[in-house]
Amino acid sequence: MQKLYRLVGAAGMCFRAFGLTVGVRVNEPDILEPLNNHLPPGCRFDDNRPVDRLYSFYVNRAQALHGVRRFHTLYRNSAIFLRSENENDLYDGFESDVDSYIAETSPTRFFVHSGVVGWHGRAIVIPGRSYSGKSTLVREFLRAGAAYYSDEFAVFDRNGYVHSFSRPLGIRVDGSDVQTLRFASEFGSAIGTEPLPVGLVILTTYKKEASWHPLAASPGEGTLKLLANSLSARANPSRALRILTQATKGAHILRGPRGEACEVVRIVQEKFGSQYRTSGR
Amino acid sequence: MKELTDQLKPKRIKALTRKFDDELLVYDERRHKAHCLNRTAAMVWLECTGHFTVPEISKKLDADFQSGGDDSLVRLAVVRLYRAGLLEKSGTVPAALLSRREVLNRVRAIAIVAIPLVTTMLVPTPARAASCFPLLHLCSSNIQCCSGHCGSSGVNLVCLP
């Protein structure tokens, strides 16, 4: 570790996000700036605590020699986490690893893999695995005027309220593997800042040429589905049960495969639009 | 077979529970499975203490189920609870008591309460629950890749088809 400190001791920073402190050290001070764009949403700088995890960036700026490959390296604590010739790979790897780390170990929040939008003072939560069509659905809700919370994680506090985790949306075009990052503002939507109670949980996956005929599911079933997409339920199941039952209490749960996202938004608008506007929790 | 299984005293496994309206959420920490029991299944499961036989449990719940002494509903619940792994596997598993169709026919005739339902889901490891990486994304294990294959490409590990 001492060797590593010497290697990357040029500059550094500490930030705190969702109850965890993460340290970053770099061997080239100028990479701290691009790194800022990859920090978790809602984090704040904090140099006064011991870090829970340390990332070290070693960017190789040595002169390129013919036939010699230059690698940049990212360390997670004292072990090599990533090596790449492309500096941006390090930032991307850092971003996804920090997000996973926070989602798995945050002591203050509970993370569920899902898309979330704010809709008339309630959160619509769309749990699901990758390629289930969450981001497309979130995008469609944004176009209809919903506030953006997340297309990756629903972040629950202990009262079951959902907080924002607003990285740009990762939209896959025509089923390709490559995600294009889009900002909520591109769809005329604002980023939600207030924690919201859950109003609706949509359990759905995209099926080509399907039509959405949602069935009402029980709150227990909704909770089960959220558990099945949670990142830290195994580590602390009792906390998971407590938070998720709190979150789905009083929420509508709809399930069923969907076709086009705009159809889902239209039906939700018809069924719940006025209800959410008038009712409090 | 009927005599044998009538002596069976089903015993529920040790698990975390949380009552939720009419339902009961049960988390099996050994298998990391979460179960949602509807009211009927939950009532039967809670009576499975290992001290009572199926007819005895049925008798205890008769007032709630209003089944007129018919124990089909409890038997069906016990079978489903066994299958979900919510009862300890000791003694004879009562799957052979009655066929499912027989039970359902009898239950349909008597039931005022709902058919016992047990919904089960596996709670994933964090890596499985997280977003998977697309092709050629840097990775460190198979589980991270949507393709399920993290392989070597030059010096790096990347997601391969």
Notable traits:
heterodimer; A: alpha+beta; 2 domains; eight-stranded mixed beta sheet; six-stranded mixed beta sheet; 7 helices; 28% helix; B: 161 residues; alpha+beta; four-stranded antiparallel beta sheet; 6 helices; 6 strands; 33% helix; elongated
Oligomer: heterodimer
Assign a percent range to the helix content of chain A.
25-40%
Level-2 CATH architecture of the largest domain in chain A: 3-Layer(aba) Sandwich
Cα-based radius of gyration of chain A, to the nearest Å? 21 Å
The end-to-end distance of chain B, rounded to whole angstroms, is 52 Å
- The helicity of chain B comes to 25-40%
CATH superfamily of the largest domain in chain A, called what? P-loop containing nucleotide triphosphate hydrolases
Mean of residue pLDDT values of chain B: 81
Largest sheet of chain A: 8 strands, mixed
Describe, in short, the structure shown:
The complex is a heterodimer of chains A (281) and B (161). Chain A has 281 residues and is of the alpha+beta class. Chain A folds into two domains: 2-105, no CATH class; 110-276, Rossmann fold, CATH 3.40.50.
